[in-house]
Specification:
The structure is a single chain. By secondary structure, this protein is mostly helical. The chain is 57% helix and 4% strand. The chain has a six-stranded mixed beta sheet with strand order 1-3-4-5-2-6, with helices on both faces. The chain has a three-stranded antiparallel beta sheet with strand order 7-9-8. α10 (234-241) links the parallel β3 and β4 (249-253). It is extended, with a radius of gyration of 41 Å.
């Protein structure tokens, strides 16, 4: 290390460059307090651990200057790294991973030496953390690697011939910005300035929502990343990776309803909560969350429940309405937008055709092939049309977008007349699938086969997806169209288990109780234990209580906590004591305090106190707030006072109201007077001064004396209530004259009942005349019982002309 005058000058110069200037209060003094290097703000993980360890070593080394650290590393010929001062700063304070492992280790070693730490041990730990941080890949990919808009689910456009022969049109038509794009630019400005933000674009199918998001992210700096979670399922993938999202990341949630609208599983609520946390986490920001959703799904996610209904979207509603920027995307081009579109159409034949042929300004819908899809659907052969309508209705009823082949094939029969069915060729299904999956001038056909990724588990059958535009078209045109029985049966047999709950609800809403019960039954067979309770509830409401009981008990046997709890609630309301207890028993094994408490109450009401006692004890051990006191009370009722005392003591030590005096009482009942008195005193100290009186009896003179001494100390301290209590204790002890004196002291202190108590005392001991006189005329100021006195009425008219 350097020494001497030169080193001192270097040190002062480096501190002047690195450290904060003195505060105004310090400038006039002799003490300078340099500011430490900034601690790196890094999201949780190996990189944070690395930065925290380096910063800890920096502080332990007494915060040397960057120049000093760089000089120390240069003097160490045994180190592979020799970082300069800027590199040292990045190693300690930058939120990024240092580019060089040797430089990072060199900084750590010289800090360890200055701090008196083990250099070798710190070097090993720093190397390991650097490698772990390097290997921890942040979610997403650099935004510049996304060159294919269709990989992010931007709709393909119609195909037309280019303007010039031999030329090639770009993948997407020229973009025409509209009013909502300005709103999006504000959101992206917030993100690039360091503020996490979320924007949700709300609009109909093919209205340009996803394309607007694509255009938006093109303006982000190159260091930003983009993460599009979808494998193996959208909500599952997003939940799994959300904790690994780091700063400067776009979270791409196209078709947000598939991420948040998951009532059967609750995944959407968990994901919404994590998204809210991500937006508030400054260590992981800035992030930009982009979502798109149809208006009907937006309403479903953001509308509060009606009175008495469950609220399945609490987190999602808070995320979308309180945190997000809502961007309304109009379905049509109007006014100035049409003028800008016409100018762009001169250079893009696709736009020119849309301007010429699109109806009522539906430019983006035309470009996405909407009219061609409607035409393909309406002019298709009966079998192809049946497939499309089966898909439309399945989605309308609540199935997810991925439709199994067997579901469509089984349901399609219900959309064909007998004549159409009889005339079908043997390969009708293959022909219909070929027709419906053919592309339309470069855009997707009515149905698209979903090709599994290599990372996804293989499927037993193909799955298909209906074009968004046709799905929305069906929601408008088939809203009241009856659903064929064949589709319901196909859903029972082939629907994806995840969606059977919502499908059962759709059947229930239509009064199709048999269908609803069968869907719930199939959901239960697939592992949804809550479906057992739904079947039981449906039977119960129909008055079929005996059948409902069996389903409730099946739910209990299945072991799902939520299903068990509702089943137990229902069983309890039916009066089936034995079945209720059997149903509640698994709760105790799982430590559910509330359910065990209910079982204890049922047993207690049935007079089965020993069994109730066991359940109360288990409820108390599981944390039920009233369990300890209830155990103590029941033990007292059973005459097991020594045991009751232990439980009351536990309650008293936990601050349970009333437990102290009850503990003293059971100790007294157990004959443990010496132990009872301190607890009575504690109760009196807490304000229950009558508690001490409960320990006084004809055979307890010693305890009465101890209580009286304590009470007198309270009275001498100015406690007027204690004066009356002390008088009562003296009365119980037979020390009547002393009692009378204390009652008088209590009266002097303003105790309202002291005179009455003293009068009763005189009457009880045979001094009735004195008692009566005291009651009628009271005391004189000198303590004597007053003699008879009279009150004379004033003369008429002397007080306002009236008698008072």
């Amino acid at each position: 290390m350097r020494s001497g005058t030169g080193a001192g000058q270097d040190r002062e110069r480096s501190r002047a460059e690195d450290n904060e200037a003195m505060s105004s209060d310090e400038r006039g003094g002799s003490v300078k307090r340099p500011r430490l290097l900034q601690r790196a703000q890094v999201r949780p993980g190996p990189l944070r651990d690395l930065k925290d360890l380096l910063y800890k070593a920096y502080l332990a080394a007494e915060a040397p200057t960057l120049e000093e650290i760089a000089a120390d590393t240069a003097d160490r010929h045994d180190l592979a790294g020799a970082p300069r001062r800027d590199t040292v700063r990045r190693c300690i304070s930058s939120p990024e991973l240092p580019a060089s492992q040797p430089d990072t280790v060199a900084v750590a070693v010289v800090l360890a030496r200055r701090a008196g730490w083990d250099e070798s041990d710190l070097a090993v730990r720093i190397r390991e953390l650097w490698v772990k941080a390097l290997m921890t890949e942040p979610m997403g990919l650099p935004i510049g690697t996304f060159t294919d808009p269709f990989a992010l689910e931007v709709h393909r456009s119609i195909e037309v011939a280019p303007i010039h022969a031999g030329s090639e049109l770009p993948a997407l038509p020229r973009y025409v910005a509209r009013a909502h794009d300005e709103q999006l630019r504000t959101v992206i400005r917030w993100a690039t300035e360091g503020r996490s933000a979320m924007a949700v674009l709300v609009g109909g199918s093919s209205s340009g929502k996803t394309r607007a998001c694509w255009e938006l992210v093109q303006a982000l700096p190159a260091e930003w990343r983009l993460w599009h979670p979808f494998d193996p399922g959208r909500s599952e993938a997003a939940l799994e990776g959300m904790d690994q999202v780091g700063p400067r990341t776009v979270v791409w949630l196209n078709e947000t309803q598939h991420y948040l609208l998951t009532p059967a599983t609750g995944l959407g609520e968990r994901l919404a909560a994590k998204l809210r946390t991500l937006l508030q986490d400054t260590d992981r920001g800035p992030v930009l969350i982009l979502g798109t959703v149809w208006p009907e799904y937006w309403a479903a996610l953001t509308s509060p429940p009606h009175d008495g209904e469950a609220d399945p979207h609490t987190q999602a509603r808070a995320l979308l309405t309180s945190v997000s920027t809502v961007v309304d995307v109009p379905d049509v081009f109007t006014g100035p937008d049409l003028d800008a579109l016409s100018a762009a159409a001169d250079r893009d034949p696709r736009l020119a055709q849309a301007v010429e042929r699109a109806e009522q300004g539906q430019i983006t819908q035309y470009l996405a092939g909407g009219p061609a899809l409607i035409e393909r659907y309406q002019t298709g052969a009966p079998a192809a049309k049946a497939l499309i309508e089966a898909a439309m209705d399945a989605l309308r009823l609540g199935h997810g977008p991925s439709l199994p082949h067997d579901l469509l094939a089984s349901a399609a029969e219900g959309y064909l007349t007998d004549t159409q069915w009889d005339q079908l060729p043997d390969n009708w299904l293959d022909q219909a699938i070929v027709y419906t999956t053919q592309s339309l001038r470069g855009a997707r056909g009515p149905l698209t086969r979903i090709r599994p990724r290599r990372s996804q588990p293989p499927r037993s059958q193909p799955h298909y997806r209906l074009a968004d535009f046709l799905e929305q078209h069906a929601r408008q045109t088939r809203r009241t169209t009856p659903v064929p029985t064949a589709l319901w049966n196909a859903l029972i047999d082939h629907a994806t288990p995840t969606f059977r709950t919502s499908l059962a609800q759709a059947a229930d809403n239509r009064g199709l109780l048999r269908i609803a019960a069968r869907l719930d039954t199939s959901a239960a067979a697939a592992g949804d234990t809550s479906a057992l309770v739904r079947v039981a509830r449906r039977l119960d409401e129909a008055g079929r209580s005996d059948e409902a009981r069996n389903w409730y008990l099946r739910a209990v046997e299945a072991g799902d906590p939520d299903a068990l709890r509702e089943a137990a609630d229902r069983l309890e309301g039916t009066g089936w004591t034995e079945e209720t207890l059997a149903g509640l028993r698994p709760f105790g094994d799982a430590g559910d305090a509330r359910a065990v408490w209910r079982a204890a109450e049922r047993l207690d009401q049935a007079g089965r106190r020993e069994e109730a006692l066991i359940c109360y004890q288990r409820a108390a051990d599981a944390g039920h707030p009233g369990g300890v006191v209830r155990v103590a009370r029941l033990l007292g009722r059973l005459g097991r006072f020594d045991e009751a005392a232990l439980w009351y003591q536990r309650a008293a030590e936990a601050g349970e109201p009333g437990a102290v005096v009850r503990l003293a009482w059971v100790l007294e009942q157990a004959g443990r007077f010496d132990e009872a008195l301190p607890w009575y005193q504690r109760a009196a100290q807490a304000g229950d001064l009558g508690a001490l009186g409960q320990v006084i009896g004809p055979d307890q003179a010693r305890h009465a004396q101890e209580a009286l001494i304590w009470m007198r100390s309270r009275a001498d301290a100015g406690d007027s209530e204690a004066l009356a209590e002390a008088a009562w204790l003296l009365k119980q002890a037979g020390r009547l004259e002393e009692a009378l004196a204390w009652y008088q002291r209590a009266a002097d202190a303003g105790h309202p009942g002291a005179l009455r108590e003293a009068a009763e005392l005189l009457e009880q001991v045979g001094r009735a005349d004195e008692g009566t006189r005291l009651r009628q005329f009271g005391w004189e100021p000198d303590g004597r019982i007053a003699e008879r006195w009279e009150v004379l009425l004033p003369q008429a008219g002397s007080v306002g002309g009236k008698y008072p």
